[in-house]
Amino acid sequence: MKNNGFGESAGRRYVVVGALGFAYMLNFLDRQLLAILVEPIRAELHLSDTQIGMLSGLMFALFYTLFGIPVAIIADRGNRIRLVAAACGLWSLFTALSGFARGFASLAFARIGVGIGEAGCAPPSFSILSDYFPPEQRGRALALYALGIPAGSFIGAFAGGWIAAEYGWRTAFLALGAVGLAFAPLLPLIVREPQRGRYDAPRETIDQPGIAQTLAFFWHSPLFILTSLGCGLTAFCGYGLLSWTPAYLGRVQGMTLGQISAFFAIASAGSMVLGAWIGAWIADRAGARNPVNYSRLPGFAFLASAPFIVGFGFADSWQASLALLVPALIFTSIHFVPALTLLQNRTPPQYRATVSSILLFLINLIGLGCGPLFVGMMSDGLTPTHGDRALGIALQSLAPFAILAFVCQMAAASQIRKEGHAA
């Protein structure tokens, strides 16, 4: 089997992708679990849609983003594998503790703990994979890793919904949290910490920068800022849909929890898998031929998602709702791998984990923090006049943000073109 020049076979490198991707799957499983269980949790704990939006969005994302950058700085200086393993154990513990919640405050405490733990997953993993794969293969590796998003969403929705339907929502949190607690100590036994920056030119290996220097590197790049804003606005739509579609299907379209766990899990996971692989093709093929495509093609996808988001709220059956949800999720899932590849390839190795964490900071603060909360607040505000249909209208209100994301991506594409001319 082909060796990468550092004593590792291609098979071994993909074992690393698989192990880190499994941790990422657990990361998103814990996020999707709350979304699929919104209705039974809301009924038992007597929560409003705004409170649910805070729990699934802002309360989680605020601490996830605040801890993300300092954790990434540690990753740029220390053992990244051990950091990911410790983070996995922490978020899994708090996922299990969510099953003991007795009200908004105790569930908020558990979600904050999950957010702090999950801050240590993705940025160190991006950095690790960049040291296992050369630049021309990073898009493929990051796409495989990103499959943890649909896989976690599928298992969180399917297994979580089934367990909740059979044994109650508290048992679902306890059971799925236990899986992460069992896996966390195995990760350092599977993945070896790689030499940092080993695929990069010697001239790129410089003294470890301070936090001010790292932040300046990011914020002085209009391309990085525009890409992050575009991705954040897309995540605003994507997380809004993912967080509230299960509740919409149950509350408005009359689906049972068992039906939602099966059909929504398949529709959402299949859409995100296809979106991730289209994104991988953009990263490794179209972007390699013309770097402008890293931004331009995802931008057109953002624009294409808007009419499907609007149509989703007009559907008169759950089958029609899911049929419109699929293309909306495909188009809002394409951006992630091209954005990661663009940033990883244009960032020296000593900055990578921290730069990735800044990207995730903006994606999650704008998207995960505000998207679900926006939908919840809109739903509560419209309920007195529109009843249960208010949630569908609130979901339709996400469409203008997809158009704003398109504008940001077109500006980023223009910046790539400008930098190319300057070079």
Automatic annotation (TrEMBL):
Keyword Membrane: yes
Compartments where found: Membrane
Membrane topology: Multi-pass membrane protein
Annotated transmembrane regions: 12-29, 50-75, 81-101, 142-165, 171-191, 223-242, 262-283, 295-315, 321-343, 355-378, 390-408
InterPro entries, sorted: MFS, MFS_dom, MFS_spinster-like, MFS_trans_sf
Pfam families referenced in this protein's UniProt entry, alphabetically: MFS_1
Annotated GO CC locations: membrane
Chief subcellular location: membrane
Keyword terms of this UniProt record: Membrane, Transmembrane, Transmembrane helix, Transport
Residue intervals of the Major facilitator superfamily (MFS) profile domain: 16-417
One MF annotation (Gene Ontology) recorded for this entry: transmembrane transporter activity
Name by which UniProt lists this protein: MFS transporter
Organism of origin: Sphingopyxis lindanitolerans
